[in-house]
Amino acid sequence: MGSDPVSLANQMSSLPNNREVWRIAAPMMLSNISVPLLGMVDTGVTGHLEDARYLAAVAIGSAIFGFIFFGFNFLRMGTTGITAQRFGADDREGLKVALGQALIVSFAIALIIIVFQMPIADLSMGLLGADSLVVGHAYEYFYIRIWSAPATLANFVLIGWFLGLQNARVPLYIVLVINLTNIVLDLFFVLVLNMDVDGVAAASVIAEIAGLVVGLFFAFKLLKTDSGPFPVSKLTSLGEYKAFFAVNAHLLVRTMALIFTFFFVTAAGARMGAMILAANAVLMNLMSLMSFALDGLAHAAEALVGKAVGRKDLAALKQSVTLTLRWSLYFALGFCLFFFVAGPVLIRLLTDIEDVVAVTLVYLPWMTIMPLIAFWSYLYDGVFVGATRSREMRNIMLVSTFLVFIPAWFLTQSLGNHGLWLALTLFLGSRGLGMHYYYKTRVVNLTLAP
């Protein structure tokens, strides 16, 4: 069969090219960039209020929900990998099962979060150890924002499912509706209604619900085109969730370790004072702009690699990685130049509190080198998700967190906030190196095994 000319032609035509990469990456970049832009608006509207405590409170609240919600980002990643492979294998029933199971799990998790919101809030605030006046505003933000949990987690699932179907347009619609609604309501609640952190939190809740409505609309519309029965029995039997949990249990541990690291950065900054906390919040917005943009290419890798694995097409898998890695390098170099040239301007757009600006500028050089260190790990996340190699992702993340980041921070505490950023840089670099090693030595050979 391998020597059949028609078969060979079909194989060659199935290899991904730059156009196919950008068909997925471009919409995802647009949608992803809107996420840090929202963060910049949150930072901007509170950063221009009369007291830096509002900015610090939103930074703390956002960090907590980053830990809570993105700790369950496996709902998106796992759904993308499973769906992409079933799409490549033309398993239509499996596509329905992937969506239904992930939505059920997402709503169950959201219910648990809401039920235990008080102890979660107390534990989070205690771990951060920020100024008591800042914590008061952070609590206010928390108890409003928590009600976005069901919509937020369901949106993770819907975005992952459509991405696995090689459809980047619907995720774009969902994310744009969420973030544009959030931005408009941020400005309206804070600047027009004179609300503060409560307005920022309420805007997030309403926006997530709006995004869920959009996602469900397109999901139901697509499901109506398939006349086959919906496999209800595979949604009600716990035994049918074995494949789902096999992939996602490792992703959960991996994601919790990742968010722990960024939570640790926020907590360590909080213990250095409100100014360092605020400055790091501004820099994290710049880092988010970079990471969410580069994640657009990682999402393309997820979809294309997953499709190749589903078809057991090793050539397509390797081509997908080569193309997306090359484009990621180009964008990383662009971000290095962008932060070097425009960094001071961006900082002043985010806050006009001169003390915060001055402190942030001291640590800006870290952002000019970060893209070249970080892009490897972002892109390989997409490759490993598409290949559903979640065990390897977990192992690399745990090593990078507890054997690189934590020791590096404790060894460089004398450097203050510079030591914190050095530890974070080493963490990202070790993740990239570890995943590159795994890919070259193990993943390619094992991914397509029966």
Keywords:
450 residues, mainly alpha, 18 helices
Description:
- The protein has 450 residues and is an all-alpha fold.
- The chain has one domain.
- Helix content is 86%, strand content 0%.
Please write out the topology:
Layout: H1 5-14, H2 18-47, H3 52-70, H4 74-88, H5 92-115, H6 117-128, H7 132-145, H8 149-164, H9 169-192, H10 197-223, H11 233-236, H12 242-271, H13 274-311, H14 314-350, H15 354-363, H16 365-386, H17 390-411, H18 417-447
Main β-sheet, in a few words?
A: none
Radius of gyration computed on alpha carbons: 22 Å
Q: State the helix count.
A: 18
Tell me the series of helices and strands, N- to C-terminal.
Answer: HHHHHHHHHHHHHHHHHH
Summary, kept brief:
With 450 residues, this protein is an all-alpha fold. The chain has helices spanning 5-14, 18-47, 52-70, 74-88, 92-115, 117-128, 132-145, 149-164, 169-192, 197-223, 233-236, 242-271, 274-311, 314-350, 354-363, 365-386, 390-411, 417-447.
